[in-house]
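Problem 12. The chain below contains 313 residues. Write out its predicted structure in token notation.
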Amino acid sequence: MAALGQLVAGVAHEINTPLGAIRSSIENLADFFNQNLAEIADFFHKLSPQRYSDLLTLLPKYQSQSIGFSNREKRQFKRALVQQLSKSSVANSETVADTLVDIGIYDNIESILPFLQDPTSSDILQQAYQLSTLQRSTNTIITATDRAAKVVFALKRYSHSNCTAEKVTANIIDGIETILTLYYNQLKHGVELVRIYDDKLPELLCYPDELNQVWTNLIHNALQAMDNCGVLTLEVRAENESLLVGITDSGKGIPPEILPRIFEPFFTTKPPGEGSGLGLDIVKKIVEKHSGKIKVVSAIGQTTFTVSMPIVI
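Solution.
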């Protein structure tokens, strides 16, 4: 239940974040068109063929330079642009460099230098900046909707139950990836995720919904052991007609005197209210229901839970 509670909180955050980005971007688009639609029409009506060509030259650069840069990198780009613009006698080089970086132009400006040297280029450059904000907002909406859809799909898959209570063939890696998607909020700050997947694994005849409980508990425990900061390694492979899933964290480890008891029901080292001591007991029962075994090897900086199940297809 503790793992589920943390999972639900993380999912709520993961859905609210893209929704906030979508709302902000749509508001930017609405404000732009409400305030500037008439001016845009007039601007394009008065634009000469040469200046129209200059504008088109600027706009595609935002899409081609869409890779995210840090603020430090952007400052470095700006300083380099200011130097190049100043040497080329471009007026207001600081302002022009700022606008170019905001548009998404960081280098290779030789082809547009003649345009920038023209004193009448400022209006075109400002219009290119405004249009680039529209591109940025639409790209944000696309990214945010993709992210929200991925989280909702993972949640739907996670919550789906097999009402027939019969085994079905399933891809184990898909189940693990579903849990990772739902735990994205806990993973994205300070956790390095390492995947080692055998790309030729057969599907397994199993109870996939129950196995999802196994991956949820083990990943939840691993993140807690690392205080959400460290390396989480997931390995899935086939060996001797068995499917092996290893979940390794770089946390503080399990003390040797506790290790033999971790699968005992109601045994927990967590403070009251944070754990019932049933998580690993449930995990063990689910694995055994699949005629499998679970073992753990632990040392400071490396604890590995390995689930092995016979490959039955």
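Discussion. The first strand starts at residue 168 and ends at 170. Students who got a different answer should revisit the alignment rule from Section 12.3.
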